[in-house]
Amino acid sequence: MGRPERVYPSKKTIPVLIDEESVRAAERQIDSCEACAPDQAEIPFDYVLDSMTGCEPEITDYVLEKPAKCPRCSGEVLTGYWRWYDSETEGRKAFISPSTLVKLKRE
Ligand SMILES: [Zn+2]
Q1: How many of the other CB atoms lie within 10 Å of CB of 49?
Q2: pLDDT digit string (tens) for 72-84?
């Protein structure tokens, strides 16, 4: 029945709490988001958190203490996550909700 899954994490994801101060620090790196700059936003917000925390993106679930907002349009910037679910017709599947894409400020 098809190829074996290339990525089949048996390890559980680890929730990592991002405190408000870190959320604000992440926001300060954002110039705009996919809602207000769809042509320029190409960095997943998770990447910003990964680089701040040093966490492994594949096993990390970020939990924000406060919602992150885009500094330009005030739209909410979401972290990505995925969950397993069981489908009667297709078996076990991963549901992936990608994080909001952002444009970072240039240093
Ligand atoms: Zn925005």
Answers
A1: 24
A2: 999 999 998 767 7
pTM, two decimals, is 0.78
**Measuring CA to CA, how many Å separate 17 from each of 25, 64, 75?**
14, 6, 21
Return the closest-CA partner of residue 104 out of 22, 25, 32. Answer: 32
Which amino acid is residue 20, in one-letter code? E
Residues with CB under 5 A from ligand 1 (ion): 32-33, 35-36, 70, 72-73, 75
Q: Which of 102, 90, 106 is nearest to 27 (CA)?
A: 102
100 C-alpha to ligand 1 centroid (Å): 10
pLDDT one-digit tens code per residue, 24-53 = 999 999 999 999 999 999 999 999 999 999
On whether the CB atoms of residues 61 and 99 are closer than 8 A, the answer is no
Tokens 């679910």 found at: 85
Q: Are 105 and 29 in contact (CB under 8 A)?
A: yes
The SS3 of residue 75 is coil
